[in-house]
Structure formats: C-alpha cells, structure tokens
Amino acid sequence: MAVIEVGSSTDRSARREKSVDLVPLSDAAIRLVAVLRDTSVAVDDPTDVELIHDLRIEASVSVPDLVITGVTGHAEQQPYDRCAFTAAPIARLKGLSLSRGYRRNVLEIMGGTRGCSHFLTLALDLSAAHVLTVYLQMRTRTEHTAANRADGTWARTGLDVAPGLMNACYSLAADSPVQQLALRRAPD
Q1: What is the pLDDT of residue 84?
Q2: Half-sphere exposure of 114 toward its Cβ, with a 13 Å CA cutoff?
Q3: Does residue 123 contact residue 106 with C-beta atoms inside 8 Å?
Q4: What is the pTM of this model?
Q5: pLDDT (tens digit, 9 = 90+) per residue, 47-66?
Q6: Contact 155, 166 (CB under 8 A)
Q7: For 142, left (φ over 0), alpha (ψ -120 to 50), or beta?
Q8: Which residues lie below 8 Å from residue 116, measured CB to CB, with a gap of 6+?
Q9: Is 75's pLDDT higher than 80?
C-alpha cells in the first residue's frame, strides 16, 4: 500500500471549484460553459495562492434533444506541458446526446490515458444541462415558489414538461408525497 505524505496539514489548504452555466440562445439551442479551478492557499497568507488547474469546456447544444452541436476545451493552467494535448479529445463529444448513454460514451472517449481526469470531470458535468433545461422550461410555466412546491403545482409542471421525472430520484418516486400531490393536480 502506497503512503502519500502531504506535509504539515497547517501549511496550505486546497480547493476545487466547479460550475456549469447554461444560457438559452433560442428555443432550439443552449450554450453550456463548465469550469473547473483547483487552487492551494497558504494558511498563514491568503494572498499566497497557487493555481493548479484552470479548465473550461464550452458547448452548444440543441434543444430539446440535448445533442452537442459544437464543443471546445480550454486550459488556462495545467501542471505539465503534456497536459496541453488533453483538450483535443473534447472535440469528439460533438454529436453525443447529453441524455441516455452520455456517461458511458464520455468515458470511452476521454477515460484513462485517452484524456485528462479533470476535463473528464467537466465533460461529465455537462449532463447537468438536462436538469437545468427542464427547470427553465418549468419556470416558463410556473413560478418556483414555496407555495407551488407545497401544493404540488411545481411537481405537476415538472411531470408535464418531462414525464421522466417520475421515479427520477428519492423525492420524485411515484409513491412519494411530492408526486402524490402532483398527481392530484390536473395536467396542463
């Protein structure tokens, strides 16, 4: 078993920040920007910041099928010169659907030594587009308020927009109180 020595735990802290932004371009297209940034900060000097990774994937996606129509990877900071080659496989994501089978396809294209684990993480995060587009579609029909969540209106809207939300998770299980309230409301 390998032992990794980290040094004094009081010397530095480390942080990973990730985000995925979705911007509607039209009724038929969205733009996704996924960002990953790793930093290390000296505990005794917050101005002593080391940038480890600073990566971005930008993608154009068709709606409602969520097919990637264009995609690029950008590395502002990576630890090794060879890492520069890891942005190229991202272009092979073009044509993939962010729906069913996406994770398996991304792992085949970018997994292991075919890519960078950090770009892989970002590419997998693009699948958040499904949840975010459903939310935006729901929001055009119903206000996202505590009252609408409490009386089942919000969940009913979700079922109208994306029937696959039924049994999508614990809270949206068919026998959950959330879905029972939604099913009592008339569909749009």
Answers
A1: 87
A2: 13
A3: yes
A4: 0.83
A5: 999 999 999 999 999 998 99
A6: no
A7: beta
A8: 55, 78, 83, 86, 87, 110
A9: yes
